[in-house]
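The authors assume throughout that readers already know how a fold can be written as discrete tokens. For illustration, here is how one protein appears when written out as sequence plus structure tokens:
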Amino acid sequence: MIRLATALGLLIALPLPILAQEVLLKLNVAPGTRIIGEEQADMEMALKLAMAGQTMDLDQTVGSRMPAIVEILEVDADGVPTKARVSFDAAASVSSTAMGQSQDAAHVLAGQTVTLSRGPSGTVIDPDPGIDPAQRAEIAGYLDLSRNELPGRAISVGDSWPGSISALPGEATGEATFTLNGLRSADGREVADISIGLDFSGDMDGATMTGTGSGQGVIDVATGLWLDSSIDVTGSFEGTAQEAGIEAQVSGTMSGSTTYTARLENVAASTGASEGTPAPTTETVDRTETETFTDGTLTVTLTGDQVEIIQNGQTYPGRIISTEGDALSGTFTASGTAFPFEARREGDGLVLTSGGTTYVLAREPGATTANPLAGQ
């Protein structure tokens, strides 16, 4: 996941700023920045439940996938986001297995778009999705981004600093230690390789939980945004809990991992924007007609902000996230995984790019269907 320089010639060729041994690491984004990311978490728990003179072994697994696009709308004078739009992919999901029974379900925000803003009492979510406090704190993290995980000052390679990580099991809280391992160039960016150490403790359904974790990640130096990260955790818990009104002794172990990957678009480090600096104007998606484009192999149908891509008999649903002039961008879903695409209108056709491959599509004759209920 972390790409290291493997050739001395490449290392020598790096520009001097990349070779600097001290770097400022702080969140510093500009309005208009788009973060196309996905977080995956998996956890295994081996439980032992003792109550009413009987002991029961109960193994559980839980998992989640959260592909989402974060669009920065406003930032403060320090380049910290104060307002952002988050579009959760329809593939966002949660899963669990217990006592041989498996459950898979869409995340409560799958396919939805919310706007996050900083208010006097914390993060405001609009529209309010009616989620529980734990889910609300999880969603608020899309506005905080890496703010609580960076030193906010210049540091040297080998330096460490304290921080916090919110994605912990149960109601645990923890202290993390981050270390700058090195600086390098990747895809034209200056990036920092970071190692992560974690100690956490807290409550899990009445039982006392303790654990440790370790991982690594890559940060874009210009913006302070994570490009990828992975953390493995292990822990144990023991205590008293209530099960169906009966007091039970609970003990067990847990292990799990969290991974995150992201791609940045329209990136520019903030240059000291004033509070409430808006993002560049983005056009509203026209929702009144259906258009179909094809090259004979790939067919793309646009209906408002909905996308349908057909290739080799397979249909992939998607969404347009934003448009600007003749350009548009969004995601489509294949086998449960969200993939980004970009497209632009050229004459009467559409040029679509995804995964490094470009398709030149022509409009199908008579393929435009006006909405008969749209205003004249």
About this structure: The longest helix spans residues 133-144. The longest strand covers residues 54-75. The CA atoms of residues 111 and 350 lie 25 Å apart.
